[in-house]
Design a protein that fits this description.
This protein is mostly helical. The protein folds into two domains: 1-72, lambda repressor-like DNA-binding domains (434 Repressor (Amino-terminal Domain)); 77-258, no CATH class. It has 14 helices and no strands. Helix 5 runs antiparallel to helix 8. The radius of gyration is 18 Å and the shape is globular.
Length: 258
């Protein structure tokens, strides 16, 4: 049975991994050393403090909110939950493009006008047995417009992990262990250093993972940038990705560890 994820302990492990001192982090974040020490001692982290820590550490703020077990503010959530219908297809088509094609697709996503938020992003989730690493990591993927089927499709394409969609629900509910292999592959799609995600979640990696492929790096970047798209924009990008891919069959990419 997984234990409750201790964010303060995870943050301490991350600082140890980076050989980063409390005062140095505080200076980078514009905080006092006492404020950082309080979080490391288990004090609840407030909204503004987490945003400052995330910027200083080079993390997306939404990920630290989730790892800390806090509700994600609306301004950090994806624009449109309905975009999850299209985003996995965008990614799976994109990774079959050339490097130049992937760069062009990413440029298009970034160039689309920002639309107004018309609804609250509130992805459904199973009540976890405990707030363990599985619950937190699956929520991080949900906040990248991936439902369970989207996770299954994209992870099977860019990593060695090949699981059923339902299995991701089991992981999120804390009924399946988050293994070193899963942490490594989740990190690839989240665009996070695997050793640092392992530190934050408390999952020990017995060896240093191999670097992600260029396709996987681009998939993570595309997933992140697509969070700002409406469903209509995501559909447009999906159609563009398919047209760029054309009718030729390039097969699966060379996955790390395969």
């Amino acid at each position: 049975m997984p234990e409750l994820l201790d964010f303060s302990a995870g943050l301490a492990r991350l600082l140890d991994h980076r050989e980063l001192g409390v005062r140095e982090l505080a200076d980078h974040a514009g905080l006092s050393a006492d404020q950082v020490r309080a979080v490391l001692d288990g004090a609840p982290a407030e909204d503004g403090l987490l945003r400052r820590l995330s910027a200083a550490l080079g993390f997306h703020a939404v990920d630290l909110f989730i790892l800390a077990g806090l509700a994600v503010p609306d301004d950090l959530a994806p624009l449109d939950a309905a975009a999850e219908r299209w985003v996995p297809g965008v990614v799976t088509d994109a990774v079959r493009l050339s490097a130049a094609g992937r760069r062009e697709l990413l440029r298009v996503v970034r160039s689309l006008p920002q639309e107004e938020r018309r609804s609250v992003f509130a992805p459904e989730r199973l009540a976890p047995l405990v707030g363990g690493p599985g619950d937190r990591v699956i929520r991080m993927l949900r906040y990248r417009n991936l439902n369970w089927m989207g996770m299954a499709k994209t992870l099977a394409l860019v990593t060695p992990t090949y699981l059923s969609a339902a299995t991701y629900g089991v992981i999120g509910a804390g009924r399946k262990e988050v293994t070193p292999r899963l942490v490594t592959d989740f990190a690839v799609l989240l665009g996070i250093n695997a050793l640092e995600l392992a530190a934050l979640t408390g999952v020990f990696l017995p060896e240093v993972p191999t670097p992600p492929t260029p396709q996987a790096v681009d998939a993570a970047a595309l997933l992140w940038e697509a969070r700002r798209l409406s469903a209509a924009q995501a559909r447009h990008v999906g159609e563009l990705a398919r047209s760029m891919r054309g009718d030729s069959h390039h097969g699966l990419i060379n996955r790390p560890g395969s």
